[in-house]
Each structure stands twice: as structure tokens, then as C-alpha cells.
Amino acid sequence: MNNLTSHLLLTALLLAWLPALHAADRPNVLLITADDLGCQLSCYGEKRFETPRLDALAKQGARFERFYVAQSSCSPSRAALLTGRWPHQNGQIGLAHLGFKMHPGQKTLPALLKTAGYRTGIIGKLHVEPVADFPWDWMSDKKLAAKPTQDVKWVAEQSRKFIAMAKAAKQPFFYYVNFFDPHGPYTPDVNQIAGIPEKPSKPADVTDSYPMAGMPPEAAAKRVTATIINTIRRLDTGVGLLLDELDAAGVADNTLVVFLGDNGLPVVRGKTWSYEPGVHVPLLMRGPGVEPGQVRGDLASAVDLMPTILRAAGVAVPEEVAGQALLPSAKREFLFTEMNFHEPQILRVQRSVRDDRFKLLLNLTAAADQSPVELFNLKSDPGERKNLAGDPAHKDTLAKLEAALQAWRKISADPTLDAARVKRWQDAATKWGRLPKVKAGPNMVVRIPEGELKLLD
Fold first, then answer.
1. What is the pLDDT of residue 19?
2. pLDDT above 50: residue 293
3. Residue 120: beta bridge partners?
């Protein structure tokens, strides 16, 4: 029997086995995101404060030390999570509420699980378009939005209802919980919400401020840092209350829990950049198939979570999915990230690749203080301060990573391989940047006029 025949036989056996999984045999899935959370958890080395409930979750399952989002911007990151495809493949290359949207016909995680018999639910923001590609059986009572999830007691109460409905229907559930914390604005009114945290941190407690982008003087820096600490402490409490609901419902043992940040904090070279503070985020997993107490050092990407969850649920993974299942284990030599648009007028076309030690960034629309090509030794220079791209001693490493990055871009049909396309994106961003801003919540923003996404083709 040759290798091809063996592969086809194995595939046939797997496909024959998948439908045989009964509802009672399939694990529930609780997928939790934290908005703008980088590795600011004590289980990842945060020293300013503690996150006891998330630390406990890490000990009960697996903590991934080298997990990366696909793009350091909310909508593209979430679209990659929910399709298993890179933003430049699924089309969500910028923020959904400002006019960017996926290409039609994407296969999404909730849609596939719903077809397989799962009851699907969401609380908090989806932030991916078009919403029609996400068929939810249940949504929270309050208007589907981000900020209500800062009331973590309310999140727990709503979650109790959804879990009870799924149990009553004797269906496994897929529940997508999106906490707004620790997203800004970092104003004093979010230091405590619905009594959480019970004793908010104060600016006087801060000895080491986060290096926020465009940070004002030290007094303001301490105030902002204290507020961020309070939002993450509230998030920690909220996740704990959510896990308590699984215990109370008697479904904890048969629920795969996946927790991650959607991108890093808006610190210097963080959110909206492909540097480590923007793309390196926490991933914690607990439940069936996850050995407790693991610290995983393998390179893992957000595009891996859809195939991981589908495999755990006994659902076939679509061929077009770019990721690989992380359970029971996964091995990759290279890991990639990208950056495209954030807001319509904010364009940073970056492509990155890293291996076990080195990281290469290709800056296709380089800022004034950026080199077109950057190479960093992440082991000796985790802050990515010394560019080794011009160092003859690292020319072989540079060539290896450049070849890997170009191969990935070709295989994934990266539209920015076309220099003319990049120029059209730049022209569109400039055009949109001249549009009058409109009010959206507390912010004044630019929205893409209807029909103008075609400018990017």
C-alpha cells in the first residue's frame, strides 16, 4: 500500500467516524476573547497585579507561551479566528464597523457547528461582517454590543440562561463570549463596574506604568495604567464567574474552554503593529483532550483554533482552512502574521515570519522610522530593538526567513504581492483620510462610503 492510498484510506475512515459521534459524546465549546489583551496576566509573568482565576485555568489545562493573532486589529483578528483563514484570504482586512467586510461565502465556525447539531450562542461583540455568515441560535438580552460585558455579573447571569437552554434541548453548545475589557477608553468611570473589582487599584499603587502610545506625563500614565489594571482584574473575575456557571450546570468536565486576547494593548509598537506587543497574546485551553498542567512552547496561531475546535467536536475541517489543529499537539517551523488596515485611513502593510529564535518583518508601507526589512533575535532581543537585517553574520537566517515568508504569501494568495495593489490601497487610505469624520460612540471616525471597498481591488 503506497502513501497516497494509505492517506486516502485514513481520510475515508475519519469521515466515516465523524457522523457517528452522538450529541452526548461531543464536547461543549466555550470560546472566550478579551478585547485588547496582550500577555498582561500573572501566569505570563505580569508583576503589577495578579489574575488568580485565569492562572487557575492555565494550571487546569494548557498555557501556550508562543501564541499569535493573525493581525493586530480587532475585526481582522476575530475574522481569522472564526474562519481559520488569514485576513488577506477572508477579506476582513480592517474594522467591520467602519466598512470593511469579509468576502462572501466564508465558512465560519458557528455555522459549521450549528450544521453539526450544536446550539450556538454569543454575548458581546462579533465585530465581523457580514453578520449573516454567523447563524446564532441565541444572543444576550441586552442589545448585542461590547460594553455591557464590562458588567461581568450580568455576563454570568446571561450565560446561565444559554447553558440551561442547551441542556434542556440536549444539544452540545458553542458559546462565544466576548469581554470588552481591557479595551479603552481608560476613563475613571471604568475603574469599577457593578462593584468589580471590589477594591480598584489607584494611581498611587502604580510603580511601573505601561508604555502607552502617545502617553502623556507620568501622573497621567499612572492613572491610565491603574485603569488598565482594573479592567484586567475585572476580566479575571468575569472569566471566573463564567467558569463557575459551567460547574453549577454540571457541564465543566465536558466543555472545551478556549481563552485568548484578540490583540495586544495599545502600547508603543503594540495594537495595530506586527511587533510582539501587538501580536503575541495569551492562549489558555482546558477540557477534553487537554492534559492539565501543560506549558506549550510550540508556535501557535489564531488560525489554528477553528480546526482545533472542529476536530474536538468531530466536525470535518474545510480544505481552505489555513491553520492546523493544536490538539493533541502541533508542530510548525514558521509562524506568520500580517497587518493591513485598521481604520480606513490607517494603513500599515506588514508581513512577518518567525521561527524558534528569529523574526523577520517586511514593511511594505514603511513608516519614517522603519526599515523596509527588519530582523530580530527574539531570544536575545525580545523588545525588537536591534535590526540585524544588514548584519552579514545573519545573512543566511535572513535568506531562510525571506524564502519562508514569500512562499507563504504565494500559497495564501496574498494580494500585496502585487505592488500596484499596494499602491491602490495607499491611494484609497489617503482618499478616505480626507473624508469628514462622523460620531461613533465616544469617538469621531472615518467610515468607508458604501461601495468604495472596490477601490482596493
1. 42
2. yes
3. 174
